[in-house]
Amino acid sequence: MGNRLIVSNIGLLATPLGCRAASGAAQGQISMRSHAYLVAEDGVITAVGNGRVPESLMQGARHIDAGGNLVTPGLVDAHTHLGFGGWREHELAMKRRGVPYLDILAQGGGILSTVRMTRDASQKALTEKAGQALEAMLHLGVTTCEAKSGYGLDRQTELKQLAVIRELGRTQPVELVATYLGAHALPEEYKNRRADYIRLLTEEMLPLIAREGLAEFCDVFCETGVFTAAEAEQILRTALAHGLKAKIHTDEIDAIGGTELAGMLPAVSAEHLIAATDRGILALAQGGTVAVLLPATSFYLGKPYARARDMIAAGVPVSVASDYNPGSCPSLNLQLVMNLACWNYGMSPEEVLTAVTLNAAAAICLADRLGSLEVGKQADLVIWDAPNLDYIFYRFGQNLAKTVIKQGRIAAGALPHQPETLA
Q1: Mapping DSSP to helix (H, G, I), strand (E, B) and coil, where does residue 335 land?
Q2: Residue closest to 44 by CA, chosen among 377, 369, 382, 370
Q3: How many Å apart are CA 362 and CA 34, to the nearest integer?
């Protein structure tokens, strides 16, 4: 009984339902329970109901009064570049002058600038910095986070980044899922040796990472001036052969075939997709690939917003994520991302909630146990300082996550009325 948690007096419990990504009209169809309660045993939800909690469940349980507030599943950030050295505020003036990203990259800036700083940083320093970021995410309601490598572009530093992700996965509350992104850019030492670098990835790094269990996914930046669709296919097919799952950064700037590749493989997710074509969107729908859209990156770079409404209409499951990184989105605020998705993608609050819970969990292959509040799912939830779902989209620029619960335990925030008590 000591591991039973009861959350009662929930004004509104809002959640998508199911164990797979929701697409089309279903993305906006969520369960809304008024005057609800939730029961969890050993971190897993065992009951969701309305009205008073049965007395038989109360004895010996830990009890949280939600104070009549909104409760949703814990947020899932399905695209971050969590561990990196330094920052890139020195690029701000260039960006404000309209210097294109690919021009900054060609001058040794962009990703390559962060690569140099990440190579120079110790594992301890990277762990401390990423840990601080995760603590901030947790207080904003994020209970699960995907974390990419990709700022090493060599054996030693990529392994260092993945070690940071593994260590933090053991030592702090936010659940982490590791993605190997060695194909994030062509490192300076391989500037004139593309084939050699791809051999390093496919013949040495991917077998090693799969053998050691250092990542669950492999990602490739398929973009003009980075990796072609043919190169991305070679890398991702090698990853699949070694038991890793496929993701792809694509169509951020130009449509060069990466979205079609994502649907053909199929990849679990395709990410960015600002320049996705009708053909690419159809490929994602046919492949069942989750579109992970990144509105804060469009906002920060002054770029167009991805075609979220067209994707939903075509039956593509849509997720939205932060893209937290030092260059194109130095923000980890998933609540801000939710606001931007509502206003700039034209998504409804219900569609956005699904996008940062169930569909985000599906984008990291965890929808079987995360992303919704229903019996059998993990007890990851947020008690909001809000009476209803619309309120957290109506308000912006303020953290409205009141209490964050991970696996049935309070992980961050203050309770609405009283500390956690025994009933």
Answers
A1: helix
A2: 377
A3: 27
Burial class (CB in 10 A: 0-12, 13-18, 19+), 192: exposed
Cα–Cα distance, 21 to 366 (Å, whole number): 10
User: What CA dihedral angle connects 195, 200, 203 and 209, to 10 degrees?
Assistant: -140
In our burial notation (b when 16+ CB lie closer than 10 A, e otherwise), range 205-215 reads bbeebbeeebb
- The pLDDT value given to residue 58: 87
Cβ 35 vs Cβ 359: under 8 Å = no
Considering the entire predicted model, what is its pTM?
A: 0.96
The segments of the chain whose pLDDT lies below 50 read 1, 417-423
Q: What is the largest CA-CA distance in the chain?
A: 71
pLDDT tens digits along 121-173: 999 999 999 999 999 999 999 999 999 999 999 999 999 999 999 999 999 99
Q: How far apart are the C-alpha atoms of 381 and 37, rounded to whole Å?
A: 12
Amino acid at 235: I
Distance between CA atoms of residues 318 and 292, nearest Å: 6
**Residue 16: DSSP 8-state:** -
How distant, in Å, are the alpha carbons of 245, 258, 318, 323 from that of 315?
22, 19, 9, 23
Q: Which residue has the tokens 């409760």?
A: 71
Among 329, 331, 327, 334, CA closest to 86: 327
Structure tokens at 407: 């696996």
The DSSP secondary-structure symbol of 180 reads E
